[in-house]
Amino acid sequence: MNTTQRDTIFLEDAEILSHQAFAGDQFIMRLLAPHCALKALPGSFVHITCDPQLPMRRPISIMRCSAKHGWIELLYKRVGKGTSLLAQRTTGERISLLGPIGNPFTPSPKRNKPLLIGGGVGMPPMVFLADSLRRDPHKQPFVILGSEVPFPFQPTPSQIIIPGLADGVIASMPLLDDWGIGCRLASLQGFAGCFQGYVTELAEQWIRSLNMQALSEVEIFACGPHPMLEAVAQLAAAHDIPCQVSLEEFMACGVGGCAGCVVEVQTPQGPAMKRVCVDGPVFNAETVFV
After folding, report:
1. Contact 90, 36 (CB under 8 A)
2. Can you tell me the distance from the alpha carbon of 139 to that of 110, in angstroms, rounded to the nearest whole number?
């Protein structure tokens, strides 16, 4: 376990402040967890006990947090026993969580046009990162979110013009529009206002519309299914753009003790097995997808 993280991971008995259900078996939960909220960074996740009868925790990425008010917000999808039990939890109940865990995204101070790409339950880290970037007046982030089930929010026509995209591609996440951050949605399901294709296809359209100066300011951040991340890494490599990806692997302990979430990563000394929970979950794309 990274020594830099030993004093920043907390065990908290968090109160459920709100718990909303959305189409596609998706849920957004807000938890009162002041210690975690104070230290969380974009890319961090928490390891939570879904139910007292299920001792093994589940890792869930943090989507938003408020250090001032002490809450964190999680988006998750009901896919198995753990998340099915979590979906039954109600406001006022308490949940044991361990966090924040993991190394965060690290934007470059020299690249002011970050491109954020999130797919499915990989959307939360991108929202968290966008929230962080909007506080820097020099940054001009562009966020692309993709989903093959209805989005866990009501898409609305964006008020922000994104040059290089087709006129009909106007659907955005309202929260990001409110923050003044350009956002577009992509799906193969024919949702109104969305780009009809993969997030990487939309990203390539935008990249190809940039001049050389603008392109030199771009860096990519992504989280989502493994095939999507591989495609994003290939896109970044084709255009010589730095790229960081957040991996989502099955985790047992969540703190680096069991080595159940190892992936092969290329290092200057050769291939090495790294733990996603504490060595990641964020890695440079070229070290994972070669």
Report:
1. no
2. 10
Look at the pTM and tell me if it is higher than 0.70: yes
pLDDT of residue 36: 97
Calpha distance 186→172 (Å, rounded): 10
Q: Hey, is 116 helix, strand or coil?
A: strand
d(CA 154, CA 11) in angstroms, rounded, equals 34
Q: Supply angle C-alpha 97, 145, 66, rounded to 5.
A: 35
In contact, 98 and 35? CB cutoff 8 Å = no
84: tokens are: 């099915």
- Give percent helix, percent strand, percent coil of the chain, each to the nearest 5: 20, 35, 45
Q: Where are the beta strands (DSSP E) in 50-102?
A: 58-66, 71-77, 94-101
The pLDDT score that the predictor gives to residue 7 is: 67
Which alpha helices (DSSP H) does 107-241 contain, by range?
123-133, 174-178, 199-208, 212-215, 226-238
**How far is CA 174 from its chain centroid?**
17
201-250 confidence digits (pLDDT tens)? 999 999 999 999 999 999 999 999 999 999 999 999 999 999 999 998 76
Q: Are strands 113-119 and 218-223 parallel, antiparallel or unpaired?
A: parallel
Q: Quickly state the pLDDT bin for 151 (edges 50, 70, 90).
A: very high
